[in-house]
Amino acid sequence: MLIGKIRVLLVGMLLLVMPLQAVTRVAYTHPGNMMKIPTTFVKRSPYLFTAGFSSEIHRFSPFNTARGVYFAMDMTDKFTLGFSSGQGADTTSVDNILNSTYLPPVEFGFHFQQKIYVRSDISFSIGLHDIVFQNAPDGLSLDPKQLTFFSVIGSEKSFGEYHLSTYMGFGTGGFSPVVSTTTTSTTQTADTASTGTGAGVFAGILLRTPFMPKWGGLDFVGEFDGTGINVGLRIPLTSDYRLSLGFTHIENLPAFSAEAYSFDHPGITLGFTMAIPRGAPGVPLRGVAVGPAPILEAGVMDSTLMFADVAVATLRDSLRVTRHQSRNLASQVALLRQRSVSLENSVKSLKLEKSVSRKNVNRAMRHLSRSLRYFYSGDYREALQEVETALEMNPNLALAYARRGSIYYKLGDPQRATINWNLALQMDPEYDDVRNILKALHENRLKTTSFSRE
Predict the structure, then answer these.
(1) Which residue has the higher pLDDT, 262 or 442?
(2) What does the angle CA 90 – CA 91 – CA 95 come to, to the nearest 5 degrees?
(3) Given 277, 301, 325, which residue is the final one in a domain?
(4) Alpha carbons 365 and 358: distance in angstroms, whole number
(5) Which of 32, 75, 228, 425 has the fewest CB atoms within 10 Å of its CB?
(6) What is the predicted pLDDT for the residue at 189?
(7) Do 67 and 55 form a contact (C-beta atoms < 8 A)?
């Protein structure tokens, strides 16, 4: 609600003021990691806020600089608020700058940015930068020429230990190409006449390297800000502090010693950034940016500690998963052992049954051998008793049924004899002797029947 009221107030003020002349944009004093262009990230920054200062040296003799400070923070996961204050370089001619009494106006600027789309490693943001108020001799005034509406799309990619972020966008105000004409004076500024489309494109890359990894890595910055090319380095001093170096408008470096300062004058920029981590001691951050932030390894009171906490939490989760997998494997091994024991018991049982069956067969054959002796001696009752004993030990002996059939035939019971001979043939279809006997019985050719094989 408060943010909405601030936006309405600022838009209303823009409609009430008259245009004033534009002053330079000092590098490293805008929200984000780039020098002058806006950025967008997939996830929220891990820092409560970032702050710093920067200076652009435009001439050494006589010494002429532009300087500024800034403050930026993520109000929500999608909304970023920034504030900067800067003072431009002296635009008096070189011949008169040593005696110049001109004091460049101090500017106070506000920056707003809203992330509206995120998908995978792509994000898209829109914003309003450089709502600049000048502390001029006639009072505090708004400078709409520096007002910048923009949209930017960013992509984050990792290549081994390197992390590359690319940004492309479209903006008005400070990103519009201009042509300037400068008139010099001993005591006052040169007026800048602006022409052009009033809007322009910008692009940039941020390469995070594995150099100095203990404090977050060394960053290489390169960008086209709509009016010129800037390159720079972001050097980590600790996990929370960085030194920024760079060159602005390198395409105009041969004009570094030009007679007067202009908006596209090349410069050497020096800056310092401090990042305050988000969260409380001992509480790891969740859902924070993993892409390029002002400093990658954020922590609680020390960013390195936070990074270690996140790594430890990840290892704990990995150990839990490994422990569960180990338990599952142990359960599977126990189940396999149980199945193995069951199979061993089954094999032992089969061997025992086979051994018992073999013993029973041997015993049954001995009784059949005795029955054959009784059969030849004419003692058919004893022969029948021995056959019955053999069948009790092993009821699957075709020979036993065949012999019992012969005994019943000798006892004058051809019906029972036929039944037993059929049982023998059913158990052993290739029992030709039994088949011949049944055929002879059917043809009334059967006279004597005996089975002597064992």
Answers:
(1) 442
(2) 95
(3) 301
(4) 11
(5) 75
(6) 38
(7) yes
CA 411 – CA 418 distance, rounded (Å): 13
- The CATH number that applies at residue 33 is 2.40.160.40
Class of residue 352 by CB neighbours under 10 A (exposed 0-12, middle 13-18, buried 19+):
exposed
Q: How confident is the model at residue 259 (pLDDT cuts 50, 70, 90)?
A: low
Element (H, E) at 122: strand 122-136
Same domain? For 279 and 169 the reply is yes
Confidence of residue 213 (pLDDT cuts 50, 70, 90): confident
Do 77 and 199 share a domain, yes or no? yes
Residues linked to residue 169 through DSSP beta bridges, in sequence order? 152, 202
Summarize pLDDT for 95-125 with one digit per residue, the tens: 666 666 677 788 888 899 999 999 989 999 9
Q: What are 275-322's pLDDT values in tens digits?
A: 988 764 444 444 444 444 444 444 444 566 777 788 888 888 899 999
Q: Is residue 340 a part of any domain in this protein?
A: no
Q: Classify residue 19: in a domain, yes or no.
A: yes
**Residues 385, 295: one domain?**
no
Of 8-17, 54-63, 67-76, 370-379, the least confident: 8-17
Residue type, 300: V
- The domain tally of the chain equals 2
Strands 139-143, 122-136: pairing is antiparallel
Question: What is the distance between the alpha carbons of residues 272 and 171, in angstroms, rounded to a whole number?
Answer: 27
Q: Report if residue 117 sits inside a domain.
A: yes
Residue 305 CB coordination number (10 Å): 18
**Residues in CB range of 155: below 8 A, 6 or more apart:** 121, 122, 165, 166
For residues 156, 158, 161 and 165, what is the CA-based torsion angle, rounded to 10 degrees? Answer: -20
Cα dist. 433→365, 368, 442, 445 in Å? 19, 17, 14, 14
**76-109 b/e (C-beta count within 10 Å ≥ 16 → b):** eeeebbbbbbbbbbbbbbbebbeebebebbbbeb
Domain boundary among 275, 301, 327: 301
Specify the CATH number for the domain of residue 435: 1.25.40.10
Question: What one-letter code names the amino acid at 168?
Answer: M
The span from the first CA to the last CA of the chain, in angstroms, equals 109
Specify the 3-state DSSP secondary structure of 395. coil
- Look up the domain containing 292 and give its range: 13-179+195-301
Q: Is the pLDDT of residue 172 over 50?
A: yes
CA atoms lying within 13 Å on the CB side of residue 207: 13
Q: Name the residue among 239, 243, 214, 241 with its Cα closest to residue 299.
A: 239
- 409 and 262 part of one domain: no
